[in-house]
C-alpha cells in the first residue's frame, strides 16, 4: 500500500495496494465512453431540435427555442446533478445527464446554421421542384450542418470529460471498486500530504486529455474556416 511511483508501479499504488496505472487505464475507458455517449445524446438531440425549429418555423420554432432557453438558464453542472439524482447513479446516468445539459448549445448552433442554409438558392430550387421536406433535410441541410456541429462537438469534448470526472468525483458515477478518473482523484483526497500521487497523477491525466482534445478541436476549427 501507498507505494510511490516506480519502475514496478509507474503511477504507484493506492491505499488498498492496487496499481494506479492499471486503474487509470481502466478508468479511461469508462470516462471517455461516458463522454462520447454524452456527446452523442447532445449532438443528435441538438440536430433534431435545431433543424425542426429552423425548418418548420412558426409555433414549433417558438416552443422548441423557449424550451432550450429554459435549459440554458440553468447552470450545466446543476442541471446534470438534478437529472442524475432523478434517474439514478452510475456511469450511464451520468452520461445521459451531461448529454441533456449540453444539448441546448448544439440546438442553438444547428438552428443558426439551418436558417442560413435554408435561404440558399439550391434549397429554394429543391422546394420549388417539389422535393419532399424530409429529402431536403437529409440531402441538403443535414450534410451542411454536420461540419460546424462536429467542430463544436470536438470543442465540447474536453468540457464533457471534465463534467464526467466532476460528477464521478462527487460520487454520482460508478460504484466502487469500479474505476473512473473522477473517483480515482476522490480516492486520494485524504492522503494528499502523505501520498499525493494517488490524486495528482489521475488529475494530471485528465488535464492532459482535455488539453489534447482542445488543441485538436482548435486545429479542426481553423481548418473548417
TrEMBL record:
One of its GO terms (biological process) is transmembrane transport. The chain crosses the membrane at residues 32-56, 77-101, 121-138, 150-174, 194-217. It is found in: Cell membrane. Keywords: Cell membrane, Membrane, Transmembrane, Transmembrane helix, Transport. Pfam families: BPD_transp_1. Residues 28-217 form the ABC transmembrane type-1 domain. It is a multi-pass membrane protein. One of its GO terms (cellular component) is plasma membrane. CDD domains: TM_PBP2. Belongs to the binding-protein-dependent transport system permease family. This is ABC transporter permease.
Amino acid at each position: 500500500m501507498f507505494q510511490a511511483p516506480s519502475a514496478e508501479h509507474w503511477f504507484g499504488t493506492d491505499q488498498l495496494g492496487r496499481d494506479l496505472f492499471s486503474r487509470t487505464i481502466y478508468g479511461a475507458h469508462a470516462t471517455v465512453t461516458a463522454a462520447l455517449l454524452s456527446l452523442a445524446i447532445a449532438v443528435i438531440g441538438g440536430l433534431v431540435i435545431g433543424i425542426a425549429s429552423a425548418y418548420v418555423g412558426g409555433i414549433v420554432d417558438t416552443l422548441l427555442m423557449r424550451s432550450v432557453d429554459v435549459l440554458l438558464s440553468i447552470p450545466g453542472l446543476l442541471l446534470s446533478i438534478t437529472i442524475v439524482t432523478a434517474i439514478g447513479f452510475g456511469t450511464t446516468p451520468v452520461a445521459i445527464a451531461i448529454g441533456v445539459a449540453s444539448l441546448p448549445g448544439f440546438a442553438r448552433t444547428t438552428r443558426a446554421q439551418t436558417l442560413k442554409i435554408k435561404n440558399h438558392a439550391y434549397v429554394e430550387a429543391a422546394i420549388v421542384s417539389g422535393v419532399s421536406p424530409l429529402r431536403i433535410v437529409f440531402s441538403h441541410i443535414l450534410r451542411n450542418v454536420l461540419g460546424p456541429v462536429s467542430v463544436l462537438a470536438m470543442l465540447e469534448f474536453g468540457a464533457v470529460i471534465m463534467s464526467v470526472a466532476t460528477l464521478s468525483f462527487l460520487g454520482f458515477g460508478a460504484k466502487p471498486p469500479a474505476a473512473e478518473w473522477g473517483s480515482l482523484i476522490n480516492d486520494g483526497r485524504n492522503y494528499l500530504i502523505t501520498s499525493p500521487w494517488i490524486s495528482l497523477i489521475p488529475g494530471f491525466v485528465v488535464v492532459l486529455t482535455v488539453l489534447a482534445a482542445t488543441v485538436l478541436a482548435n486545429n479542426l476549427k481553423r481548418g473548417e474556416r
